[in-house]
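lol so apparently i was supposed to do this last week
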Amino acid sequence: MVGKLLVVGFGPGSFEHITKRAQEAIQESDCVIGYKTYVELIQDLLIDQEIISTGMSEEVTRAQAAVRLAEEGKKVAVISSGDAGVYGMAGLIYEVLIEKGWTEEKGVDVEVIPGISAINSCASLLGAPVMHDACTISLSDHLTPWKLIEKRIDAAAQADFVIALYNPKSGRRTRQIVEAQKILLKYRSPDTPVGLVKSAYRDREKVILTNLSEMLEHDIGMLTTVVIGNSSTFLYDNKMITPRGYQRKYTLHTTEQRLRPHERLRHENEPWALHQGKEDNVTNKQEKIAIAEKPRESTLSIATEALERVRMQTEETKADDTKPIAPVQQQIESIFELAVSPGIVNKKFTPVQMMTLAEVVGDKGSMEYTPHHQIILSIPTTDPDVITKKLTEVGFILNPVGDVFQLKACDFCEGEKKDSIPYAEELHKKLGGIELPKELKLGFNGCGMACYGAVNDDIGIVFRKGKFDLFLGAKTVGRTAHPGQAVAEGIEPDKIVETIEKIIYEYKEKGHPNERFFKYFKRVQEVQGFKYKDIAPKIELEPAPCGD
Ligand code: SAH
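anyway here it is w/ S-adenosyl-L-homocysteine bound
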């Protein structure tokens, strides 16, 4: 009879979180070896197995006993909480086997069965705190020198890892967590979110959300995992969340906008990324070949150079020992994008406004003049509010950019034809900046001349003889561009705002993501009672992808 070692991680402690294979393995075994609390946790799974339960610190004894029984021909389940390969029994079992000259070919069978480790079970109860690069550090210095643990906490803190601290504290080990907090505070803000999870998925489960400076005011024990956020982790509605990336684009009033796939890794959107180097951009075939054929440096010369660099660096740091290390409170800048205009009606900038623009945009930002009565600012910043405050103080109107509603009014003949201005202002107030399936411009012209081209915007309204004409569904770009359809003439002024609002909210609710208004109109054939007519010119044009 050939014996077998089944090294089983049974997860956090609840029955539902034990994997199927772990349950089977426990049930097919002849005997079960584990710390007694754990054997109790899984006792409902046991049939008639021999049970060998030992105390907490008798792990080596347990591993030796397991190996011996397997060598006698038994199927032995060695159980660990969480995952057996994470501060569990798997490594010890292999160490004992190796000492006895075990090989896979000749020795007993070994199967390591994975389980849900505390970092995962605890994270699930906290929200989504791990999410990004993370590490686990055990604060137990029974088997590891404290100096080394300190070094790892320091490195992880400095490198902005999310950190799960295992074995944070026990009856006798109380100082480790205090020291760990001190090290973390060297690099991270005292407000850094921290989650304390005790007995995840067990009877006395307790979840606490706190922060780095206050975490020690709460109960931390042997059954707690301490999850330290990174510099972008935040708390929201009793959840601890680490975003997937560091930097995104922001615009006014909305939270982060997701970058579309084609916007990713562009310098203007993600300036922190490692952008393509020169060699990657070589298009000339000859040059490419030249690079490919460049003689490879010998491995020895590369290694010698690397060693030399390390030596120089070590010397530099030695000389620099007194210099404090910069904290990693990554106030990572986000690209704040917004649109500014001097007014709905007013198209004139003042010198003070121009100077303020220059000041807030600075060296790192950019200003883009667009055909849509506004300038788009793109500014790397950690504090968008400072920028919006300065801009509004000098009378700018600020708008979000992206897939939002924008009102493009004319200048009402420099304010001379002012009767319809209040309607333009009301529309801007009610709808300006709301998010839509796709960007939408509403052209608003104050007389029948419609010289600002309202009929060529997604939706156009023209004030004429005291009433409004309405145009829907212009195709604003492309070689098959066309104006909107005149769907109504003479809409009463007291009805216009309401009519537009209904159209916009219908499109917001029912438009597909990325579907321009003219496409939506064509698809549904009727918007708020206004019927679609196929008036688009029938010209067959070869498709022309951008840039061709
Ligand atoms: N092999 C286990 C870890 C064993 S070390 C695993 O993969 O999860 C023991 C430490 O794990 C405890 O001190 C605690 O920090 C953590 N831990 C294990 N189970 C836990 C649970 N149910 N809830 C919270 N922390 C737990």
